[in-house]
Amino acid sequence: MLRNAVSKSSGISISLGLLALAALAAMPLALMPRAAQAHGGVPFKGSFSVAASVTPNKGGVTYCNGTAHALAVEAHGVGYSTLGALSLSLQKTIDVPGDMHGCLILTAPNGDTLNAIYDGTEGAPNANNFIVGATGTLTFTEGTGRFRNASGNAHFTADFSTVYPASSFLGGTTAPAQVMAFYSVEGTVFLHDGDR
């Protein structure tokens, strides 16, 4: 009986000792400046609702050193992410179906921006004018404020819906096609400067 009491007492002491060592090991990380902690990467996950205007790329414009695809797109929207609320601005060229390439800027409410190169592919529209399951990558290249010197990447999936295609260039007029887009984004951002 005394032997069991000593064993239990020793087991509790060892457990408490290991817990104290774990707390001491974690203390330097807790005391480290937040910028140094974030150097290993911050998970980034978000959803965005976007409205876009699409026109034929007659001028052969390109964005972020990309290819001049058949259509030019300007898109704006808002969403929420693990980095907080963000607006989204995108300029890209696309082939439908086919490749997409452009420049994306995410802006926080305080004006800090996170810039990315946007690359992806999309399929053909279905009978309901939806393009579902478009995929791609955001490569974070820089930013301002808390996103200054940011890097990293994220994967995105998107669904696009063309609104009133018959009244756009798709239907033979000169008006832009209007598109709604829904993006889901997940990846890692390396934030090297500033408070997080």
In helices, the fraction of residues equals 10-25%
Number of domains: 2
**Order of secondary-structure elements:** HHEEEEEEEE
Number of helices: 2
| First-last Cα distance | 55 Å
Shape: elongated
Structural class: alpha+beta
Contiguous runs where pLDDT drops below 50 for at least 5 residues: 13-38
Please specify the SSE layout and strand pairing.
Layout: H1 2-31, H2 34-38, E1 42-56, E2 71-81, E3 84-94, E4 98-107, E5 113-122, E6 130-143, E7 151-163, E8 177-190
Describe the model:
With 196 residues, the protein is an alpha+beta fold. It folds into two domains: 2-31; 36-190. 18% of the residues lie in helices and 50% in strands. It has two helices and eight strands. It has helices spanning 2-31, 34-38, and strands spanning 42-56, 71-81, 84-94, 98-107, 113-122, 130-143, 151-163, 177-190. Strands 1-2-3-4-5-6-7-8 form an eight-stranded antiparallel β-barrel. Strand 4 and strand 5 form a beta hairpin.
